[in-house]
Model the fold of this input.
Amino acid sequence: ASSGYAAVWATDNTRKALFDAMKRKEVYGTTGPRMLVRFWGGWDFTEADANGRLPAEIGYAKGVPMGGDLTPAPGNEGPNFLVAALKDPYGANLDRIQIVKGWVDGNGETKEKVYNVAWGDDETRKLDADGKLSPVGDTVDVENATWRNTIGDPELIATWQDPDFDPALRAFYYVRVLEIPTPRWVVYDAFRFGIPIPEGAPVSTQERAYTSPIWYMP
Done:
């Protein structure tokens, strides 16, 4: 298993551009895979914006990227977001994209809620009344330390609007992208070195990516 990666959305592959991108927090991290993740927030995104093949053109034109601050709320309607993720070319398909919202309520208490906004195999997987999503499945082959990309999707893109927005409360939003299950390191070790898997050890995991937040201030 690989260690985590940090990704930077910079205008050029130069020292100055990379540091500028880190200063504006237009960065994300993964637990190992080389997924591509884009995330913008604003007030004018529409469902049709998720149909284009150049989401960055729409994202920067209509909103702010990961790490940015939303402009003041134009009304009581919640902000909307454009999010896109592409699988690691040599890795696993994608299970889902989630947006995690955090906010401080009227009593000063910190709250958090996870929203499923896009997912693979959407012909057969639907959200329930509580916004929960059924598991994507598991194709891990423990004996051969591999898996099959017969579930999930190679790419996910969607727009989403916060249904629980209060313009008077501070909030932040970040994206979490989950892959379908793949073998854990204990499975690879058992396969490569011919050693037994420790009893009770989990044999699969879902690698993921996390973006910098987009911030809302009243």
The chain has a mean pLDDT of 96. The chain is about 10% helix and 35% strand. Residues 184 and 202 are 7 Å apart (CA to CA). The longest strand covers residues 94-104.
